[in-house]
Design a protein that fits this description.
332 residues; alpha/beta; Four Helix Bundle (Hemerythrin (Met), subunit A); four-stranded mixed β-sheet; 9 helices; 14% strand
C-alpha cells in the first residue's frame, strides 16, 4: 500500500470491511487493516475475494475501485461512488462538443502540451546521452517544427481537427523513435504495440497508461465532467474520450517514468514472461512497479485535477457569455 492507493495483487486474497477499514487476509489468521479514509483508489489485479458490501463501502467512502486482469493488467472496470452533483457542467460540456471551433482550440491545447512535454524530455536527455545525440536532436527538431505549425495557425483557426490529429500522430511517431534510442536493448522497444504488448517496455507502458487513464476518468467525474465526451478524440462507443484527451498531455511524463525504470535497472528483461504472443510483467516486478508508479503519479494527478478545473471554468464562462446574449462567441 502507498498513500492514497491500495494495490491488491495476491491471488485468492480475502478482503473484508470492519469499522471503517478494509481488512485483508483470511479470517482467524494474521491480517492487515487499512482505514478507508486514507484511500483514493483500490486497484485489484486478479482473483481477489470481496463482497458487494465491501465494494459499496469502498465507493461510499469516495474511493474508486479499479479492476485489472491478473495476467495482462488490462482494465476490466472502474467503480465510482456518487458523481458530481452539478449536472449543469455536463450539459455545458455536451453543448460545447457540437461547437467545432471550441473543440479545435481544446484539441490544440492538448497536442501542444503533449509535444512541449516531449521536447522538454528529450532536451533534458541530450547532455547525458551523447551516444544518442543524432536521434534526439532530429526528434527535437521535428517536434519543434510541429509546435511551430500549430502555433502559427492558432490565431487564424486554420487547423481542422483532422489536421491537428495528423500533427499529433506524426509527433507521436517521432517521440517513439527517440524513446527507442533511450531505452536499453533488453527493453525490446521498437515502437508502440499493445493488446497484447510484445516486449518489456510496452508491457510496462501499457500498465502505466492503464493506471493513469483510470486517474483521468476519476478526475473528470470528480470535476463534474463526462469522461466519454472529449474534444481531441471523437465520441466512440465504450471509449472515455475526454480521459484520452487528458492522458495525451501526460504521455511524455509516463514515457520518461518508464524509461527511468529500465535505465536504472529497477526493471529488467527477466522481470517479464512471454506467453501467447505477448509479454507480461511478473508479479514480483509489479511489486516494484506499483510503489514507483505511486511516487511518480503525484505530479500527473495534480495536473489532471488542474486541467479539469480549467475546462470546467471555461465551460462556465462560455455558458455565461451565451446567457448574456451579446452575440459574441466565447472561445477558450
Amino acid at each position: 500500500m502507498t498513500l492514497g492507493t491500495l494495490y491488491l495483487d495476491k491471488q485468492t486474497e480475502l478482503v473484508r470491511c470492519k469499522g471503517g477499514a478494509l481488512v485483508i487476509g483470511p479470517k482467524g489468521a494474521r491480517s492487515t487493516s487499512v482505514p478507508l479514509s486514507l484511500l483514493d483508489r483500490v486497484v485489484i489485479n486478479g482473483n481477489v475475494q470481496l463482497s458487494t458490501t465491501v465494494v459499496g463501502s469502498i465507493v461510499d467512502s469516495g474511493a474508486s475501485l479499479i479492476l485489472l486482469t491478473a495476467k495482462h493488467g488490462r482494465r476490466v472496470a472502474i467503480v465510482h461512488g456518487r458523481y458530481h452533483s452539478d449536472a449543469s457542467v455536463r450539459i455545458a460540456q455536451y453543448a460545447s462538443y457540437r461547437d467545432r471551433s471550441w473543440r479545435e482550440r481544446w484539441a490544440r491545447r492538448f497536442v501542444l502540451g503533449k509535444i512541449r512535454g516531449y521536447v522538454a524530455f528529450f532536451r533534458h536527455k541530450l547532455p547525458t546521452r551523447p551516444d544518442r545525440r543524432f536521434v534526439l536532436k532530429r526528434s527535437i527538431d521535428r517536434l519543434v517544427s510541429a509546435l511551430a505549425t500549430i502555433q502559427e495557425a492558432q490565431t487564424a483557426d486554420a487547423l481542422t481537427l483532422d489536421m491537428i490529429r495528423g500533427i499529433e500522430g506524426a509527433a507521436a511517431r517521432t517521440a517513439f523513435d527517440a524513446l527507442a534510442a533511450l531505452l536499453p536493448p533488453e527493453a525490446g522497444f521498437h515502437g508502440r504495440n499493445r493488446r497484447p504488448p510484445k516486449d518489456p517496455a510496452n508491457a510496462c507502458l501499457s500498465l502505466a497508461y492503464t493506471l493513469i487513464h483510470a486517474d483521468a476518468v476519476r478526475a473528470a467525474y470528480a470535476g463534474g465532467l463526462d469522461p466519454y465526451v472529449g474534444y481531441l478524440h471523437d465520441i466512440s462507443y465504450g471509449r472515455e474520450s475526454l480521459a484520452c484527451d487528458l492522458v495525451e498531455i501526460l504521455r511524455p511524463e509516463v514515457d520518461r517514468f518508464v524509461c527511468a525504470l529500465f535505465n536504472d535497472q529497477t526493471l529488467r528483461a527477466r522481470d517479464f514472461s512471454r506467453d501467447a504472443g505477448g509479454c507480461f510483467m511478473k508479479k514480483a516486478a509489479r511489486q516494484k512497479f506499483y510503489p514507483a508508479f505511486e511516487a511518480f503519479a503525484r505530479g500527473p494527478r495534480r495536473l489532471l485535477r488542474r486541467t479539469v478545473r480549467l475546462i470546467v471554468r471555461h465551460l462556465r464562462e462560455r455558458e455565461f457569455a451565451n446567457d448574456c446574449g451579446t452575440g459574441q462567441v466565447y472561445l477558450p
